[in-house]
Specification:
The complex is a heterodimer of chains A (114) and B (112). Chain A has one helix and eleven strands, in the order E-E-E-E-E-E-E-E-E-H-E-E. Chain A is mostly beta strands and 114 residues long. In chain A, the strands form two sheets. In chain A, strands 2, 4, 5, 9, 10 and 11 form a six-stranded mixed β-sheet that branches. In chain A, strands 1-3-8-7-6 form a five-stranded antiparallel β-sheet, with no helix packed on it. The longest helix of chain A has 4 residues. Chain B has 112 residues and is an all-beta fold. Chain B contains no helices and eleven strands. In chain B, a hairpin with a 3-residue loop joins strand 4 and strand 5. Classes of the chains: A mainly beta (114), B mainly beta (112). Chains A and B meet through strand 4, strand 5, strand 9 and strand 10 of A and strand 4, strand 5, strand 9 and strand 10 of B.
Chain lengths: 114, 112
C-alpha cells in the first residue's frame, strides 16, 4: 500500500509563477517530511524538510506547508525558474518507530517554461 | 568532496548471472540504504543498515542481499537476477536521527 502519494505525475508552469506540488500520506505515525529534487542522470538531492510540530518551513524560494489533520503537505516554489525543472519526491518518516527510514512518493515531474 | 559513489553506472546482464553493485561513502555516515526507482512507483527501499554488521529488510528485499562489513561500504548483491529486477538503483547514506539522505548517482540495471 502506498503510504505516501503524489497524485500529479507532472506539472507545467510558466517562469516567474508559483509552482505547487502536493503530497498526501496515510500513516499517522509519520512525523518528519522531506522534499527531494532529482535531475536526469543524477541521484535525488535534499531540498527542504518539516517536522510535524510545525506547519510551515521556508528556505528562500521554497516553502513547505504541512496540514496534519488532512495528512497533506505541499511544496511551493516562487518564483519558479527553468532550472527548477526536475522530478520532485515527497518523503516521510516515523522517527519514533522507524528511525531513519524514509518512505517516498511516486514523484512529480515539474517543467518550468521560459 | 563529500559523496556517495556507486559502480557501475550502467549494467546489462542475463537472467541468473550473479552481480554486485558497489556503494561507498566518504562522510563517515552510520546509516546506509538501497532504493530502486521504477516508473509510477517512486523510490522503494530494498535494504538498510544502521551501522556496521547491522542490516535489515526494507519494503522490497526479495531477490537481494547486502552486507556491511565496513562503515563506508554497502554493496548490493543479486545472486540470481531476474528481468523484474530491471530498474534504476540508488544507494544513500546519512547520519542517524533523520539527517537528510545523500544519494549516489544511480545504477541503471537491465536484466535480459
Amino acid at each position: 500500500d502506498q503510504q505516501v502519494k503524489q497524485n500529479s505525475p507532472s506539472l507545467s508552469v510558466q517562469e516567474g509563477r508559483i509552482s505547487i506540488l502536493n503530497c498526501d500520506y496515510t500513516n499517522s505515525m509519520f512525523d518528519y517530511f522531506l522534499w527531494y529534487k532529482k535531475y536526469p542522470a543524477e541521484g535525488p538531492t535534499f531540498l527542504i524538510s518539516i517536522s510535524s510540530i510545525k506547519d510551515k518551513n521556508e528556505d528562500g524560494r521554497f516553502t513547505v506547508f504541512l496540514n496534519k489533520s488532512a495528512k497533506h503537505l505541499s511544496l511551493h516554489i516562487v518564483p519558479s525558474q527553468p532550472g527548477d525543472s526536475a522530478v520532485y519526491f515527497c518523503a516521510a518518516s516515523a522517527r519514533k518507530t522507524s528511525g531513519s527510514r524514509l518512505t517516498f512518493g511516486e514523484g512529480t515531474q515539474l517543467t518550468v517554461n521560459p | 568532496e563529500a559523496q556517495v559513489t556507486q559502480n557501475p553506472r550502467y549494467l546489462i546482464t542475463v537472467t541468473g548471472k550473479k552481480l554486485t553493485v558497489t556503494c561507498s561513502q566518504n562522510m563517515n555516515h552510520e546509516y546506509m540504504s538501497w532504493y530502486r526507482q521504477d516508473p509510477g512507483l517512486g523510490l522503494r527501499q530494498i535494504y538498510y543498515s544502521m551501522n556496521v554488521e547491522v542490516t535489515d529488510k526494507g519494503d522490497v528485499p526479495e531477490g537481494y542481499k547486502v552486507s556491511r562489513k565496513e562503515k563506508r561500504n554497502f554493496p548490493l548483491i543479486l545472486e540470481s537476477p531476474s528481468p523484474n529486477q530491471t530498474s534504476l538503483y540508488f544507494c544513500a547514506s546519512s547520519l542517524p536521527h533523520n539527517s537528510p539522505l545523500h544519494f549516489g548517482n544511480g545504477t541503471r540495471l537491465t536484466v535480459t
